[in-house]
């Protein structure tokens, strides 16, 4: 049911109260910062200042002196273009900066000088909020819809933590997740996907505040957006409330009370606001949206607020004090009480307390990699997705906070944790997530889980990595160690045909800075790949696995699979300087090895390089890379069932590739391999041609 809380009122209430003063401080800071930077968006911070003030001063459970308190409420600004709102809030709240290790630096998270540096190089106030850049920024936002997606992961993780760590008399986790989002956010598919699963999971700790200001960049939302958003969310199973005036802070407080009293579903509060409220000529026009407002507009707005018209970056002492006292007056005692509870908890449940310490530090439990399976040589072999399932399960047995799942493909992706419960509304502490067929939200939710201490992984077919590219990219920007499992990684998919056979996806993943893309070449490399992925603390990993069986190499004959840790290694060699280097990854590695054996039997000095991770290989020093690829050896052939893009970095101008230059086709795998040249004869023929050319 949609409940309208108050009639429209939209007047600026100049009552001289500390509340009013703080609200107008947020507004004028946003205007001044945007004007100084000559770029940014002041209109939305101005409109949302009253409700943000109410949320932060009256509800948000947050201790500005301990911004990494695990049970803090999360505030996500999904409309990241309104970043000045968040920076002003962090400034007024007096949030204290902490470094990467959680130690205080003695500086504020956002000083007034930082605000004056809005959008400048290396400032703590970048154009859009960036996680790790500014203390108090819970996630990087800007690509609309992503913050909404992240928030669902945060709410899932909060309930997971509550379910796994709370004990009778010890409530360590009961935090809420608040989101401010905009028209663009709720138009984006990812937010819809995320809202759908949030409703399904009955995430009553999740509250989205939707700023319905009827304006986006091109103009009135009526240009492209007619639906009744509240009704849509009701259909998702959300509680929905409508507030007709963003100035009406009492009504907003009532709405938040309703959210807090709702224990069976997430809450959407639709707030009608006027963008750029106070601007004499721009309010309600799309002009208020982006460019710097100009001195005249700003003076007009300041006048409307009863603010000194010539003052810039003015933060009245009273505004800052009342704001920070309100939030720390509530947050600090809560946090102190939590620390006391946790100290008792440590006595009662030392193991759980230790586990929680590890989680907070982003560590895997000790010994998690002790029992990784190893696989005997086997010509028939095993699909790397199958091997992955075994490895994942071995690790999961020791790493309780490894939580993940697939987008309805777990029977195929082998990402289920055996004998573990599903993560569902009634079992929020379960481990097998059922993301449904919502790849984009899956990535975004996984990022939110990683931002809330869990070690999440996802699973789908490699070709659908395109559906989740934005959150993968954001995981890399945020340096979140999420594991993205992609199976069915080539034309090896077979009969499902070109729509399901990835071609350009490998190159596209490898193109993302900071993402470790690993395509292991047999079962033992698969085990090492998982180990590497979970050893990463600041990099997401894309694990790329085959649908079809891959021979398990005889490691007594070839180099150990641990070579994968360096990204690439000499797998098989001959005496002396090689005449040809055959490079393989994934399911093509055994093909490279077979070609090598054939050539070696003919007396050719052949070498096989296994190159599962370009990312890790590029991190090695020049001497190591030269030892794998001696610069003088120019006859180099790469074999990979993906596009050629990028391979010339390794094969050079004189080398060649056996790769895909077209889409695949629907046929049995053997026919496809023949058609596209992934046969022993073709690879050997190409190698010979290269050696001939090199003479
Ligand atoms: C995925 C994505 N597409 C496009 C943009 C560019 N963009 C920034 S703000 C915006 C729309 C702004 O309208 P709205 O979301 O209603 O926010 P408001 O201006 O009302 O605060 C767009 C299209 C973006 N940031 N993210
Ligand atoms: Mg809008």
Overview of this structure, please?
- With 695 residues, the chain is an alpha/beta fold.
- The strands form six sheets. It has a seven-stranded parallel sheet with strand order 13-14-12-15-16-18-17, sandwiched between helices.
- Helix 22 links the parallel strand 23 and strand 24.
- The protein is elongated, with a radius of gyration of 28 Å.
- The N and C termini lie far apart (79 Å).
Strand order of the largest sheet: 13-14-12-15-16-18-17
**Envelope shape:** elongated
Number of alpha- plus pi-helical segments: 24
Largest sheet: 7 strands, parallel
Alpha-beta classification: alpha/beta
Q: Alpha-carbon distance between the termini?
A: 79 Å
Radius of gyration: 28 Å
| Average of the residue pLDDT scores | 96
Strand content: 15-25%
The counted number of beta strands is: 24
Bound molecules: thiamine diphosphate, magnesium ion
Helix content: 25-40%
Low-confidence stretches: 1-11
């Amino acid at each position: 049911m949609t409940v309208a809380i108050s009639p429209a009122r939209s007047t600026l209430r100049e009552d001289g109260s500390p509340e009013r003063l703080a609200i107008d401080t947020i507004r004028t800071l946003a205007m001044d910062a945007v004007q100084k930077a000559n770029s940014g968006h002041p209109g939305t911070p101005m409109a949302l200042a009253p409700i943000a003030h109410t949320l932060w001063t009256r509800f948000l459970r947050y201790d500005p002196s301990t911004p990494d308190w695990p049970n803090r409420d999360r505030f996500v600004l999904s409309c990241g273009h309104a970043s000045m709102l968040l920076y002003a809030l962090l400034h007024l709240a007096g949030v204290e900066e902490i470094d990467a290790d959680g130690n205080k630096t003695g500086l504020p998270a956002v000083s007034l000088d930082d605000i004056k540096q809005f959008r400048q190089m290396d400032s703590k106030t970048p154009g859009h909020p960036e996680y790790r850049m500014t203390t108090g920024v819970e996630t990087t936002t800007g690509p609309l819809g992503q913050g909404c997606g992240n928030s669902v992961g945060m709410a899932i993780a909060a309930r997971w933590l509550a379910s796994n760590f709370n004990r009778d008399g010890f409530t360590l986790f009961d935090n809420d997740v608040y989101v401010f989002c905009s028209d663009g956010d709720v138009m984006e598919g990812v937010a819809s996907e995320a809202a759908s699963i949030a409703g399904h999971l009955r995430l009553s700790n999740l509250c989205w505040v939707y700023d319905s200001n009827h304006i986006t960049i091109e103009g009135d939302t009526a240009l492209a957006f007619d639906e009744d958003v509240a009704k849509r969310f009701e259909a998702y199973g959300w509680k929905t409330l409508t507030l007709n005036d963003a100035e009406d802070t009492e009504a907003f407080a009532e709405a938040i009370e309703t959210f807090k009293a709702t224990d069976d579903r997430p809450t959407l509060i639709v707030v009608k606001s006027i963008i750029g409220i106070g601007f004499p000529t721009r309010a309600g026009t799309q002009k208020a949206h982006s460019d710097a407002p100009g001195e005249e507009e700003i003076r007009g707005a300041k006048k409307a607020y009863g603010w000194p018209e010539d003052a810039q970056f003015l933060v009245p002492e009273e505004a800052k004090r009342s704001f920070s006292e309100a939030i720390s007056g509530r947050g600090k005692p809560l946090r102190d009480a939590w620390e006391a509870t946790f100290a008792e908890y440590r006595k009662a449940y030392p193991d759980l307390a230790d586990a929680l310490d590890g989680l907070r530090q982003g560590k895997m439990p000790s010994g998690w990699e002790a029992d990784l399976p190893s696989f005997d040589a086997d010509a028939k072999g095993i699909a790397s997705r199958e091997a992955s399932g075994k490895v994942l399960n071995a690790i999961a047995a020791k790493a309780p906070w490894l939580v993940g799942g697939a987008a309805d493909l777990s029977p195929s992706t082998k990402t289920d944790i055996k004998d573990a419960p599903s993560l569902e509304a009634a079992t929020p502490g379960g481990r097998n997530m059922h993301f449904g067929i919502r790849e984009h939200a899956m990535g975004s939710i996984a990022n939110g889980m990683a931002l809330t201490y869990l070690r999440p992984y996802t699973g789908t077919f490699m070709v659908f990595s395109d559906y989740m590219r934005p959150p993968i990219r954001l995981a890399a920007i945020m340096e979140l160690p999420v594991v993205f499992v992609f199976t069915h990684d080539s034309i090896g998919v077979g009969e499902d045909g070109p729509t399901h056979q990835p071609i350009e996806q490998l190159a596209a993943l490898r193109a993302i800075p900071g993402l470790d893309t690993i395509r292991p070449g047999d079962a033992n490399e698969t085990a090492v790949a998982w180990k590497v992925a979970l050893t990463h603390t600041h990099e997401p990993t894309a694990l790329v696995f085959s649908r079809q069986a891959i021979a398990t190499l005889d490691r007594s004959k070839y180099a150990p699979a641990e070579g994968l840790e360096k990204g690439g290694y000499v797998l098989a060699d001959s005496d002396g300087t090689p005449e040809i280097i055959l490079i393989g990854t994934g399911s093509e590695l055994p093909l490279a090895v077979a070609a090598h054996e054939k050539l070696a039997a003919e007396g050719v000095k052949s070498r096989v390089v296994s190159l599962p991770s370009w990312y890790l290989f590029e991190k090695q020093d020049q001497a190591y890379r030269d030892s794998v690829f001696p610069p003088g050896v120019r006859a180099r052939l790469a074999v990979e069932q993906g596009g050629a893009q990028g391979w010339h970095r390794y094969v050079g101008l004189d080398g060649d590739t056996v790769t895909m230059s077209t889409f695949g086709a629907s046929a049995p795998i053997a026919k496809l391999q023949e058609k596209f040249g992934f046969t022993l004869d073709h690879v050997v023929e190409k190698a010979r041609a290269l050696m001939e050319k090199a003479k």
